[in-house]
């Protein structure tokens, strides 16, 4: 089976999932012929992905989300306007995708939530089947807990996920837990795709908490929480820190962003405080760590992730760094939820290969 990947390059989550699936399909003897990565115009494919992806890579200019530099709040209107201004660039990108499909002659294309994939299939009506992969497609499942009181945000989120999956033979919805498929939506529920570096780790529990937040306002909250509860050891990763390890006092250590060090610290922590990005929450869940999930401001998708994680027992959703609430929750966290997640994840290889091979057989 010849497989071509199309990957959203915004953030690390979709690229990390693509690397995990690449390992699965190659171990099964399938041929990964290439990867197209959607990036902001003028930016390269992130090095961590380019260095690890086991096939030729091609960058494709793609629309990007815009966040406020001070608050990290998602600016929906600005994101849309910027994309419209660059429409000529993105039409060229659609032709680039068309040419890549013709050149590689894949049996199936796998799209990791790259909007250009849906637009290309709508424009060119390729005969090659496309399978879309993302946690976001769980929004088409009746069990997904939408954040309340934001009907316009909900419709925008659903529309974006619909556009991403235009032309898809099958949508693979990454889920914290096993749920029934939704045949009317061509939706199959599958386990998350996790890095082998996570799966190979044996977790232990030390007394410190791990915090990783991107919003400048939350950094202030973290520092204030530490002043109020200096008895709680805290290791804090933040983009504003330049040193690998900066000891502030006996119970607070700051870290610069580093993927391997972050996993090292997560492996041994007591609990995790992070934004509600699906990938990092899943990694903590797999390693048995309760999570305080704080969605980025105005980020509807992350708000839904936090509620969904709370539904299955990952931890608690919050709009602030509420250390007292987290500490009160920890004695009541049910480790059986983590065990169920590990059991669900153990079927990942089986379910993904069956889905892709089934689509190719039917084409």
UniProtKB/TrEMBL annotation:
Pfam families referenced in this protein's UniProt entry, alphabetically: Glyco_trans_1_3
UniProt KW Transferase keyword: yes
UniProt xrefs under SUPFAM superfamilies: UDP-Glycosyltransferase/glycogen phosphorylase (SSF53756)
UniProt GO molecular function: glycosyltransferase activity
Keywords in alphabetical order: Transferase
Keyword Cell wall biogenesis/degradation: no
Protein name as catalogued: Glycosyl transferase
Organism: Arsenicibacter rosenii
